[in-house]
Automatic annotation (TrEMBL):
Similarity-based family: Belongs to the Gfa family.
Keyword Hydrolase in record: no
Alphabetically ordered keywords of this record: Lyase, Metal-binding, Zinc
Pfam families registered for this protein in UniProt: GFA
Source taxon at top rank: Bacteria
Annotated source species: Kordiimonas pumila
Residue stretches making up the CENP-V/GFA domain: 5-109
Keyword S-adenosyl-L-methionine: no
Protein name: GFA family protein
InterPro entries from the UniProt entry: CENP-V/GFA (IPR006913), Mss4-like_sf (IPR011057)
Amino acid sequence: MADLRAGGCLCGHARFEINITDSKTGTCHCRDCQKHSSAPFAIFTTVDHGAFRWLVKPQGIAKSSERAIRRFCEKCGSPLSWEGLEFPDEISVNTATFDDVSNIMPVYELYVRTRMAGIEPIKGARQYEAGGAY
């Protein structure tokens, strides 16, 4: 049975649908994600492109590195997705932008070498010093 979720930005302009049935959710503690989200880490749910669709695609695009494109709402600034150029068949969506975040637990943590002090590892989540084969 499919686990379909809807989501979007803070102002409601950008909207999406995502099937998280075969997804992987994790945190990223890299400095880019910390700065982009203005938080100690970002939480992403990654799915194949076929399990995701924009209902209203955000027009904001940021390239903080040569590795990825980050999409955000141009009206309210909410960060929405990370699209890695090394992973053209996948999209990582900011999990906090889902309308319903129930029963979603991170199973991995990336770039824990730059984890901020006081942030404990998630119990049971695989830990990667840098990126990893999550």
